[in-house]
Q: What sequence folds into this?
DNA sequence: TGAACATATGAACATCTGTTCATTCGTTAT
DNA sequence: ATAACGAATGAACAGATGTTCATATGTTCA
């Protein structure tokens, strides 16, 4: 067995081992889908604002300087990813973060960005 | 001052307060740019694999079942975001995670996804 | 009931993104 | 030098994404 063959086998072994350790394809796909949500400045702003407390759609739109419609569409995406929850009070709908993960994820991201 | 005016003022106060607490626009923009990187299944897979140890481009392509070119393009994006580092050994280039943030961010994401 | 208001939704459009293909670059060995 | 190999790059194309506009839903109050 020459050197290159040995080298190739070493590769194949490592590749096989990693393949085993990899989570199911679907899990990593879902993970990417989750991060996709964070990967838009409008949505990140929404999440950041909501990390400070609940707020209604109208105020969110005002703070972000975008259409009410745009905010609504994005909140829909956040809802679908279970990142926010909402409650209705008369004509007004208040949104808030669904759980603590969001804060942690954002905090880690900010640490990386601010280095 | 009637009720609706009071209500409106309450809104404006809260909006103003949150506006103060918000990080600079550019920071949140950069944050979104960072998460955008995680928001693609090919890149997430790359990051996950690299979290297990360094690996060369060829093997990465094989593991992911995509072109060497595609991997190279995506590694470029990861490099630009300072998420990976690399070293050359002869004809081969080995990639590895740049720091620990990636693992933390992914772990938090996985927690959320697997609920 | 109907007017007024807050929010949600659908369609359309321009922009962005990720892949492939072809080619080039960098390195090693003959 | 040149062939062979791994990796990087650029152009191009198909598909996804975010916004706006128009309209619909849901709620309150007169």
A:
């Amino acid at each position: 067995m020459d050197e290159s063959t040995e080298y190739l086998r070493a590769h194949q072994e490592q590749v096989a081992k990693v393949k085993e350790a990899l989570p199911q394809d679907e899990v990593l796909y879902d993970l990417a889908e989750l991060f996709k949500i964070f990967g838009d400045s409008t949505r990140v702003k929404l999440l950041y604002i909501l990390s400070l407390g609940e707020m209604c759609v109208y105020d969110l739109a005002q703070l972000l300087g975008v259409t009410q419609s745009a905010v609504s569409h994005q909140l829909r995406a956040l809802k679908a990813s279970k990142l926010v929850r909402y409650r209705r009070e008369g004509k007004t709908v208040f949104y808030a973060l669904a759980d603590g993960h969001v804060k942690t994820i954002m905090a880690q991201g900010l640490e990386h960005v601010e280095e």
Q: What stands out?
A: Chain A has one domain: 24-113. The beta strands of chain A are 55-56, 84-89, 92-97. The domain at 24-113 of chain A is CATH 1.10.10.10 (Arc Repressor Mutant, subunit A). Residues 36, 40, 42, 66-67, 69-70, 73-74, 88, 90-92 of chain A lie near DNA strand D (CB under 10 Å from a C1').
